[in-house]
Design goal:
The chain is mostly helical. It contains ten helices and no strands. The protein has helices at 14-18, 25-30, 37-45, 51-61, 64-78, 84-98, 102-115, 120-129, 149-162, 169-185.
Length: 190
């Protein structure tokens, strides 16, 4: 009996992740064609003035579930006493992260709309809803989300959460980046 062989997956490079992102010119200037996603994230995260770029990049580099989990932690920290709509958005995103079922994903769509897509909790729930499946109601033809929507919503949720207290934006960015680094390194696990 022979053992099936597996073809190793090609290593994804930072340039692959960054090509669809709206990174600043200073961030783009730092990318090295040989950088892994983690190496480029570390370069960006080491420079406080590029924190927003680092957040956008890591949101796209992480797998969708881990990316939403990262945003969940950031939004929870920023909103210790959220409004009812925000509570629902946070709770549905949490349920999807714990159990990424179609029912939980769909619940996130309704919660995102109720919380408002222009808020951190709304973006958080939208990130989970846009992770796959269909954007259309279940009885209509499938309309898949663009692959980059989850990362875009995760970055928006984290950036909006960091601005809840405008006097602490740099500290909030640093805290968010530290949480993201823990997830990216495997130090924090689902």
């Amino acid at each position: 009996m022979t053992t099936p062989t597996t073809t190793p997956r090609p290593t994804r490079l930072a340039t692959d992740v960054a090509k669809t992102l709206a990174l600043s010119e200073p961030a783009k200037a730092l990318i090295n064609p040989a950088h892994t996603p983690r190496q480029f994230f570390d370069v960006l995260a080491a420079q406080p003035e590029l924190a927003e770029d680092a957040i956008r990049f890591l949101a796209a580099a992480l797998p969708k579930r881990e990316s939403v989990w990262w945003a969940l932690g950031c939004v929870r920290t920023a909103f210790p006493k959220p409004a009812p709509e925000a509570i629902r958005a946070i709770a549905t995103a949490d349920a999807w992260v714990k159990e990424p079922t179609e029912a939980n994903r769909r619940a996130c769509g309704d919660a995102a709309s109720a919380a408002n897509y222009g808020t951190a909790p709304g973006c958080l729930a939208a990130a989970a809803f846009w992770s796959g499946g269909s954007l259309a109601p279940p009885h209509l033809a499938v309309v898949p989300p663009r692959d980059d929507l989850t990362a875009t919503a995760v970055a928006a949720a984290i950036l909006l959460a960091a601005t809840v207290d405008v006097t602490r934006i740099p500290e909030n960015y640093a805290q968010s980046l530290a949480q993201g680094a823990d997830i990216a390194s495997g130090k924090a696990r689902l």
